[in-house]
Amino acid sequence: MSQPLTLQPIVMADLLRKAQAPEAPWKDFRPGVMMLSIYTGAEGQSSALLKYAPGAEVPPHVHTGYEHILILSGSQSDERGTYQAGTLVINPPGHVHSVRSAGGCIILVVWERPVAFV
To answer: How crowded is residue 17: how many other Cβ atoms within 10 Å of its Cβ?
Structure first.
């Protein structure tokens, strides 16, 4: 299901306030990982906040387009290392990795195209 891109700017402070509200529409993404969708475009582009519980993992997947990850709190790891809050990671098309968070984290992710789980 696609949602149209908003015609209004998305402001990070407003988004984080929405994410912290008790009625925030977080949905299960993977075991231990919740997703709060920001937008989904008609051509597969999307953005979301992901909230990892301590020890949560996302299995190996390949990126069919660019992925931009901004670690907002906690830390996230993949095969290349561990990324702390404030780190921006850009994964190119064709990149394969799995992701985990030992202590839990919240990230902002922007996908140019959907990922494919391997």
So the answer is: 11
